[in-house]
Each structure stands twice: as structure tokens, then as C-alpha cells.
Amino acid sequence: MTTHGREAEVPPPAADRAPEPAGGGEPVCLLHLVCPDCGRLADERGARSCSRCGTPLPDSGP
User: Fold this and answer.
1) How far is CA 21 from the centre of its chain?
2) 32: region left, alpha or beta (phi > 0 left; psi from -120 to 50 alpha)
3) Residue 17 forms beta bridges with which residues?
4) What is the CB neighbour count within 10 angstroms for residue 61?
5) Half-sphere exposure (Cβ direction) of 44: Cα atoms closer than 13 Å
6) Structure confidence at residue 29 (pLDDT)
7) DSSP characters over 20-34
8) What are the tens digits of pLDDT across the range 9-61?
């Protein structure tokens, strides 16, 4: 197929394209700052308990 003397650009098949980045959201590395009871995100990275309800936050790892 030609358009004004040039070949039309055909996008590559889906398997050949890089995945589209997900829109919005926080990175997974912040999950340890989400209160398991009320869902509030901690204000500080070093927080050990929820500032809203006082529930201890999950451990950040080993």
C-alpha cells in the first residue's frame, strides 16, 4: 500500500513492541508503608506504625 509515493507505516505486531508503561500508581517498594487495617500511606519512609490508626506497619524486608 502506498500513500503519496511512500509506503504506509505499519506498526509492528504486538509481540515485537515494548509493553506500554502502566499509568499512575505508586511503586511497589512503598507497599510496606501501607497500613494493612485502614490503607493509609505512611507520611515518612521510616514509619513503624500508622499515623491514623496506630496499627504496626509491615516489615520492609529482611
Assistant:
1) 9
2) alpha
3) none
4) 6
5) 6
6) 81
7) PPPPS---GGGGGGB
8) 776 666 655 666 566 665 668 888 999 999 999 988 889 999 999 999 988 54
pTM for the whole structure: 0.50
- Residue 22 in grid coordinates: 502502566
Location of C-alpha cell 512503598: 30
Alpha helical stretches, state H, the chain? none
Closest residue by Cα to residue 37 from 13, 26, 53: 53
- Any residues with CB less than 8 A from the CB of 53 and at least 6 apart, and which? 35, 37, 38, 40
Q: Quick check: helix, strand or coil at residue 15? A: helix
DSSP conformation class of 54: -
Instruction: Please tell me the distance from the alpha carbon of residue 15 to that of residue 36, in angstroms, as a whole number.
Output: 37
| Residue 16: strand, helix, or coil | helix
